[in-house]
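COMPLEX REQUEST
Ligand: D-malate
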Amino acid sequence: MSTLKEVLAQKIAEHRPRTTRLVKEHGDVKLGDVTIGQCIGGARGIKALVTDISYLDPMEGIRFRGHTIPETMEALPKVPGCDMPYVEAFWYMLLTGDVPTMEQTLEVVEDFKTRSQVPEYVYDLLRTMPRDTHPMTMFSASILAMQRESIFAANYNAGKFNKMTCWEDMYEDCCNLMAKLPLVAAYIYRMKYKGDTPIAPNFDLDMGGNFAHMMGIDAPYDDVARMYFIIHSDHESGNVSAHATHLVASALSDAYYSLSAGINGLAGPLHGLANQEVLGWTQEFMHKLGGEVPTKEALEKALWDTLNSGQVIPGYGHAVLRKTDPRYTSQREFCLKTEGLKDYPLFKLISMIYEVAPGVLLEHGKAKNPWPNVDAQSGVIQWYYGLTEYDFYTVLFGVGRALGVLANITWDRALGYAIERPKSVTTAMLEEAAGIK
Ligand code: NMX
Ligand code: MLT
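STATUS: Structure written out below.
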């Protein structure tokens, strides 16, 4: 049986001529024009990135290597006795585009075990940080601190850079990082919120199982972790965390520098941090009502109060999607089929927000998409399983997001994508183009 790296090498060799041909023979073909609105408005809709790892259709939502979320969950090998697939199988699929067999999956599981030892200085660093430091800061700092482990950087510095083979060092760094991230995240959680009681890993378990074990949360949290990591992994390349990771990597910065940058972007309230904000907003609202599920009228008023105070409704809207996020739907379906969760007051409230908020946002008339995104539903599941420290939720998102962005930067190196350097213009140039000067 070929290893993941051997299969990937084959895929890369097959893919390279496609990229070379497009650049050499069709480099002048136009993909669109750029408007002033796009230039000032966050480059929305401008086609300027390439990835084959995922694609986001505004109405359908994400496909990973051509598979919708339900298709992904169905196709990948499952952990025995569990409903969710191995995260390691998903990593294989993101990198190669192939659904691995159980044997190929277990090869990755074993490989990750050999890479998972977190350097002691990472724990030392975390321990020196004030305990009220945001967990995303701790997570990003840990990733950055491990940069000294980079094989890519070491070989580059030793003068061994080779454009054709450097993806292999990137691959090694990305696998090493991916194997360690769940351990770092769980350590931060137990250190910060659980009275400094880290739980040693159990390497008989797969990534999701081991993460649940190190968090100290019983089954079915292992399946929740697997689902969570998979659905948060990738959302094509233009979102802040993916783009930041890709941008930094384009300077030939290694995976540690690049991922840390992406995680910093994920920590923004308009991006990943929205999932902590949803729970904060919802809990505060329930608290005001003495812990009761509100009436629809009270909820509608609270939503308007939020909007009228100039805040956004967290978990609603999207830069690209124009329909309910399938990541929201898959988590909602998980809640609906899970005994206890489906009648859980917080889930009922989240469901009521789903009924009321789109109408309010439509009437408000600003958001282009009034439907919920992934963050509107994630927190309730975490809360139900005892993970009530909601400022940790974005770290969970970050472990998942690493799968997608690290697979992407491995391919970036393999295909020799250029250093990113879009052109900027001045306001006066825009006024001139608009004919108002
Ligand atoms: N509540 C209130 N106003 C909103 C919302 C919302 N949920 N979503 C968009 N708007 C406003 C937005 O602030 C903007 O106002 P203005 O013209 O005054 O600047 C206007 O509607 C147009 O924005 P859009 O073009 O619809 O959205 P954009 O692409 O700029 O931003 C988000 C997308 C996701 C940043 C935005 O919808 C938002 O702030 N949502 C709430 C935060 C959130 O849920 N973020 C999570 C994103 C998903 N993730 O996983 O990272
Ligand atoms: C994401 O998962 O990155 C978010 O939904 C934001 C986006 O895609 O723009």
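REMARKS: The pocket of D-malate (ligand 2) is lined by residues 235, 239, 319-320, 373-374 (CB under 6 Å). The chain has a mean pLDDT of 97.
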